[in-house]
Amino acid sequence: MSKIGKFKEQDITVIPHNKEKYMSFSIGNLRFIDSLQFLNSSLATLTKNLADEGQKHFNYLSKTFPDPDVFSLLLRKGVFPYDYVDTEQKLEKPCLPSKEDFFNKLGDTHISDEDYQFAQTVWDKLKVKTLGEYSDVYLKMDVALLADVFEKFRDISLHDYDLDPCHYFTTPGFSWSAMLKKTGIVLDLITDIDMMLFVEKGIRGGVSSIFHRYAKANNPYLFDTYEPTEPTSYLSYLDANNLYGWSMSQCLPYGHFNWLTEEEKIKLDITKLKADGSDGYIFEVDLEYPSSLHSSHSDFPLAPERKHIQVEHLSPYSKELLQNLTGKQCLTKIEKLVPNLYDKEKYIVHYRNLQLYVELGLKIKKIHRVLKFKQCPWLKKYIDFNTEKRKNAKNEFEKCLYKLMNNSIFGRTLLNTRKHKDVKLCHTEEKLNKETAKPSYASCKIFNENLVAVEKKRVNVLMKQPIYVGFCILDLSKFLMYDFHYNHMKSLYGDKIRVCFSDTDSFLYHVETEDVYEDMHQYQDMYDTSDYPPEHFLHDIENKKSNR
């Protein structure tokens, strides 16, 4: 960035994360995009994944190093003593630095014997005379390998989606266009500010909580620790396959938003609303959490809320710890997503979740507002396409790509344009004076005498993302987790099971039963057991990677 200020005759524009970090920048008609915004893995990982499919995809590397033996040698990420080279004179060193000189301060890691031997082999094979020449080889390798990886990504994208990612800045932006093209859906944008704020208020992330701090299994399959005189119990970690993929395959809103009238709210029978109906609803309600449920629901309470935890919410022991360990008598003001047993006021919730909460014992005290919309499983076609592609992928490179294409859709639906930055790069005194004189001026970052980044306050915000889709995806993911816990696990084991912790799409259970594997076998249609050893009686590929 320190050099681009010298292009005085060209306009310089950026798409910023902040004053110093940019997603992309342009000099005149030349645009620079960041490959990391598309392929968010190390070059070492990307190269290895692509190499697993063979050498045929490394066209740029073979052109850069045409000797077949050298080409075969360089089919991996190179290594370089970054911290050692702190002066130009060291580039004149006539031999490879010692293994200790390859220590990476940034990663606080030493180079492996295998990597050092690779560096020595490259030095010898290419008849390198100085560390400077080795640096040239290293850089040519990096550029050629990244070019080959990105070209493979482009080939797949053009073949599967008929779109070129080079016309985009990030994978989420590219995947969003691919989804719109593949599904043909037209999404209405909310133009009513009250509806927008209503949906925003209901957005809550995944539940990540520790509910039970210590549990010890008495597992008969673990002979060293099993106590025959004690009740048999297991620690069972279960993970939902592609949780958000499942949510994105459900009926989702696409338009025709309107508030229900008082009369329509009275006539609406929540219990009779269909999961796959053409009409969907988002409710704002007051909920009562009956005290009779508190004991059985204490390890995974329904209807989690974003809350500021107050000192009065803490137990006497926790208050004492707060004082002794921090010297403070107050807590952070950062909101947390908290599962709790309190009654809820003006709780915004998807209708399917509300149906489940009522079925499990919560009571609706009052309905404040109801937002109605049209819905259908419009995203399912795209999700299924990528899921099937991932299932049939020939290598890790393609598996990661198709997974990313699905996951990035969810993130795109929750893109918060309020957080976007407005940054101008000024490379002339005239432009700098103009930008800093504006009332919207906020701050600046001086790179050098030729370049200054000026950050401005946002004058307006365009709310152009269908965040109502993201809200529904998040709530439906909670529906699946609560439904599985209460209507399967809790129904099966009763008070013999406890949630130790939950993290968005997973549970760690402490369950008291004679044989948890036999229990799973009875409900094998609910589980993906394809990763069990082939000789295990639970091994079955029927539900491999399935999210049904």
From TrEMBL:
SUPFAM superfamilies per the UniProt record, alphabetical: DNA/RNA polymerases
> InterPro entries from the xrefs?
DNA/RNA_pol_sf (IPR043502)
- Supply the name of the protein: DNA-directed DNA polymerase
Q: Which organism is it from?
A: Mytilus edulis
